[in-house]
Each structure stands twice: as C-alpha cells, then as structure tokens.
Design a protein that fits this description.
By secondary structure, the chain is α/β, with parallel strands linked by helices. The chain contains 13 helices and 15 strands. It folds into two domains: 146 residues, Aspartate Aminotransferase, domain 1 (Alpha-Beta Complex), CATH 3.90.1150; 243 residues, Aspartate Aminotransferase, domain 2, CATH 3.40.640.10. Bound molecules: 4'-deoxy-4'-aminopyridoxal-5'-phosphate.
C-alpha cells in the first residue's frame, strides 16, 4: 500500500522540487504535530496566515457558531449576511476614514485582481505600475505585476501596459504619469526577503501619485493584520493608500481576502455595465466569522504591541557568523545566509530538530522567520537555540 507521502506526490500537483513533505495531523498555537509524536515549532505561520496561532479557541468558536446558522447563501453582495456586514464594519474601523468600503473575496490574488479592475475602471486609464522584486500573486493579472522575470516568462503575453519601477528608487517615480491608473506596492516586500521601504520612499511615492491622479494600492496581504507590529504596516510609514488589499492573516486560518477603497471609488464597479466584479464564494460567512474573531483577538489583546519586543529577542539571539544580516519589520523577518546551498541544509536540519522554517520565493538565501504573533519568550528562545544548533550540526 502506498504511504500518505507517496500518494501526496502521485496525486497532488507539485510546483516545487522541494516540498517540505512533513506529515501534520494536528496544529495548535505555535506548534504542529506529526503522526508519530513529532512536534514542530512553526516559524512560517502558513506564510503569514496564522497570526493568532493555529486553531485559536475564539476563532474555532466563531466558526462553529456560524456552522449552526448557514454556509453559502448567494453570490457576494446580494443578501445581507451578518458575518459579512460585521466584518466590513469592523475592518473600516481599523482604517483611516476614507477607506470605508470593503469588497470581500477568497484570497490574496483575487483581491489584487479586484483592485486592478477597480483602479482601471475608476481612472479610465490602463497603465499599471509595480516594483522590482514584488510578489502580488499567481493569477494572470497579479502575476503580470511580479518583479521576477523568471517567474513570468513562460506565461507571456501577460497583462499589457504594466511597467516596473525599481523599489526604493526616487528617480524612477517620474515614470508615474497622468497615464498611470495605479501603482501597486507591498508596504513591506515579503517574498523579496523582507525589504523595507527607505524612510522617504513611500511619502514620495504617495505625493507623485497625488500629483498625477494615480491611485496608490498598498498590498498588505502578508504585512497586514498585526504582523509588523501595527495593525496595518502603512501606519509606520506616514502614508495612506487609496486602495488597500489584505488576505492571509485576515482569516485566522480560513480563506478570505479583501480590497478596500473609498465608496466613491468602489462605486465605479457598478457603473456601466452593472456587475463590474462578481464572486460566488467571496465573503464566505464561515470565513467572515473567523476573520471577525481574529480581528477582535488582535484588538483586545496585547499581541500587536508585543511584536517589536519579540522581534528584538529574535535579533538578539540569532547571532552567528553564518547569519549575515537580519531584516525585519516586526515579526516579518528574514535571516540572511551566504547562499541557498548553505541555507537549505540548515532548514532541513532545523525541521529535523523540530523548528519549521523555509526561504522566500524571490530570496532563497534568507530564512523565513514569521511565527504566530502568540509565540512566547520561551518559545522564541527554543526556536533560536534550535536554529543555532542546526547551523552548528550542518557545519561540523
Ligand atoms: N501579495 C503578497 C504580498 C503575498 O505575499 C501573497 C502570497 N504570498 C499574495 C499577494 C498572493 O496571495 P494568495 O496566495 O492568497 O493568492
């Protein structure tokens, strides 16, 4: 009989040569558990999803409560559904007043697609600008925005009229003109290996967009929902977007995403023709209930306030000649090694030693450190001890 792993490789599509291949039966808090008693401390959080930990009891209770009422009722936006209304209302309360209208979807890429359509429709322009090293998703439109040529080449032609500017380049901002519908940027670049904006960059970008009537779209799919130490990462960079995109951590483990804009911008999706954007499953009520619980956990606890101190502890403890630098914005962290060839065996060894981490899509010499925000001081010490031990074991 084939093992679960063999069946996985045979029947589940693989798009990487390096699947982690861990068998996990249960996950709770910051830990995942394998079928034979293995325990892994999770430093990945499902790529920035499990910000409040795996199976947070309040998220589970909210899901169970909604299961008793209804699952799917109707395509998005036709029927007044309590979980959607409450989530949209609470979300806008976390945001500057102009961001008052929420379109709920199922994933990050879908939220990006919606935001692009909205920007084109509202401005009547077609040009879209994104940054070098950006990652915005895997669907055709979002893929067109990605910074990696490698990633895009096999799928051309992609969306026409997309230009790329260099991340953090002030001179490149002149490429944003009255032709440009929108600039889309990750407030903190995630898959580029945690690249922060220079202090003057986002304000200058904001100003250039203002001057040219271009919409500024911030992708906080990975950086939002407390990950960086503020509810939204943009709160740390003295700017506000015209359109905000979120997903991942938003659902507390359930699939959901959103693009959020002022009502006067969002309203353009219903003009001529009607139904400018449709989704069957967007705003699934169970996902909305989980998301609302997640939002409330982040608001009523100190989890977000504690992020900088927890990140500092990682920085203090992860000192080793093999670690060249650590880049971070809160608990979105990257520990840089010389090369992938050096890093990969360390990651494999760390997993053997019970700490789950990986690398970044566009930055394979850096270790991903993005644990649930619920991680404790003791667990951070445990994680760092294992990482340092794994480096030593691999080097000896
Ligand atoms: N934008 C960013 C910044 C992301 O990190 C990701 C996912 N890694 C996406 C978009 C795409 O989200 P999804 O995988 O949910 O489509």
């Amino acid at each position: 009989m084939l093992s679960q792993r063999q069946l996985f490789l045979q029947h589940q599509a693989q798009t990487t040569d390096f699947p982690l291949l861990l068998e996990v039966e249960r996950a709770e808090g910051v830990y995942m558990y394998g079928p034979n008693g293995e325990r892994y401390l999770d430093l990945i959080s499902g790529i920035g999803v499990s910000n409040v930990g795996h199976r947070h009891p309040e998220v589970i209770a909210a899901i169970q409560n909604q299961l008793e009422k209804y699952l799917h009722l109707m395509v998005y936006g036709e029927i007044v559904q309590g979980p959607q209304v409450q989530l949209a209302t609470q979300l806008v309360h976390t945001l500057p007043a102009h961001l008052n209208n929420v379109y709920l979807v199922n994933s990050g890429s879908e939220a990006v697609e919606g935001a692009l359509k909205l920007a084109k429709r509202f401005t009547g322009r077609t040009e879209l600008i994104s940054c070098s090293n950006a990652y915005h998703g895997s669907t055709h439109g979002s893929l067109s925005l990605n910074g990696s040529e490698n990633f895009k080449n096999a799928f051309r032609p992609l969306l026409p009229d997309v230009r790329q500017i260099r991340h953090n380049s002030l001179p490149d901002l002149v490429n944003i003109t009255h032709r440009t519908a929108a600039v889309i940027i990750e407030t903190v670049q995630g898959e580029a290996g945690v690249q922060l904006p220079q202090p003057s960059y986002l304000p200058a970008l904001r100003q250039r967009c203002q001057e040219t009537g271009t919409l500024l779209i911030l992708d906080e799919i990975q950086a939002g929902f407390g990950r960086t130490g503020t509810f939204w990462a943009f709160e740390q960079f003295s700017i506000e977007p015209d359109i905000l995109i979120c997903a991942k951590g938003m659902g507390g483990g359930m699939p959901i995403g959103a693009f959020i804009a002022p009502q006067e911008i969002m309203g353009s999706l219903k003009n001529d023709p009607l139904l400018g954007h449709i989704t069957t499953f967007g705003g699934n009520p169970v996902s909305c209930a989980a998301s609302l619980a997640t939002l409330q956990i982040l608001q009523k606890t100190n989890l977000i306030n504690q992020v900088p101190a927890k990140a500092d502890l990682f920085r203090q403890l992860l000192v080793h000649p093999q670690i060249k630098s650590i880049r971070n914005c809160g608990l979105l962290m990257a520990a840089e090694f010389e090369s992938f060839a050096i890093l990969k065996p360390i990651i494999d060894q760390a997993i053997k030693n019970g700490v789950l981490t990986d690398w970044f899509l566009f930055c394979d010499n850096s270790m991903r450190i993005a644990p649930p925000l619920t991680i404790t001081e003791a667990e951070i010490k445990e994680a760092c001890t294992v990482i340092l031990k794994s480096i030593e074991e691999v080097s000896s």
